[in-house]
Task: structure prediction
Amino acid sequence: MKDLAKYLGGILLAVALLLWVLRGADPAAVWGQLKQASFGLMLVSVVLNVGHNVFRVWRWRVLLAPFQPGIPFRPMFVAIIVGYMTSWVVPGRLGELVRPMLLSARERVPLGPCIGSIVADRMLDGMSVVVLFVIGTWITPLTGEAAEWETIIRTGSVTMAAMVAGVTVLMLLASSAGQRFEGWLDRRHRAIRWVGRTMISISSGVKALRSPGLAIQLAAYSLMAWLTIAAATWAGVQAAGADVSFGQILVIQPLLVLGVAVPTPGGAGSYHGAMKVGLMLFGVSQVTAVSAAFLMHFLIVVPVILLGTVLLWTDGISWKELVSSAAQIRKLGSTEGTGPIAEKVVEETP
Result:
C-alpha cells in the first residue's frame, strides 16, 4: 500500500507538472512544431543517448576491477539498459538495485562491492555534470534571462563542485579505513552495526578511485559519457527547433539531471519542466521549449524501453521475477523473503 501510495503520488505530481509545462503554450502550436521536427537529428540523438552507455560499461568495469577484473561487456550492458528501463516504468527507483543485482547473479560479482560501485557511479556522474557545468558557465555567454542570474549560476557551480568533492572524500575515507572500524562496530548497538557495516560495504565500491591510474580512466569515461549525453540533448532540442549552443546545453544539464531525480514515473513532468526552464533562460520561445522538452523525453525513454524489452527476451530474463527480487533486497545483505534471483545473489555473494 505504501508503494502504491507513492506511485499514485508520483502520477499526481507528474500531471501537475505537465499542466504547468503546458500553461501558456498553445497545444496545437506545440504539436505543429513536433510534426516538423528533423528526423535526422532525432536519429542522431537516439544513437548518442543509447551509445553513451558504452562509456558507462567501461567505467563500471574499471570500478569493479579491484574485485573481479575482466567482466564481459554484454552482461554489463544488459544490466545497465534493463536497470534504466526498470527505473522508467516501475516506481521506487528499483532500477538502481536491478542493475547490480542482475550482474551479481549472472557474473558472480560480490553484491556489496557491486552495489557500492553504483554509488561510486552516481558520484562520478555528479562530478562530471558539475565539471561540465562549470566549463559551460565560463565558455558560454549568459544571455537573456540567464544573464540576470549570472552570479547565482556561477556561484552555484562552485558550491556544487565543493559538495561533490566533499562526498567523494568521505567515501574514500570510509573505503580506506572501513576495516579498522569492524572491531569497534562489534561493540555497538545492533542498529549502529547494521548502518556501519552497510556503509563500509557500499564504500568498497569506490576502491578503484584510490588508484591514480584507475581514477584517470574513470574520469575520462565519465566525461565522455556526459559529453555524449550533452551532444544527444543538443541534437534533440535542435531537432525541435531550439537554437541553442552546445555550451548552453552544458549549463542546462544540471537542471535536467535534477528533473530526472524527481520521483515521477519516468521523469514525466519534472524533466519537461526542467527543460522548459533551462531553454527559456537562453531566450528560446515557450512553444519551442515545450516542444523540445516533449521530444527529448520521448527520445530518451522510449528507445531504452524498447531495447530493454528486446534484451530481456534474448537473454531469457524474467523481468517480473527480477523486479520482485529487487524490491525484496532493498537492504544490503537481507535474506528474508527474497525472490529467486535475490536468493541466488545472496547465496553466491561471499
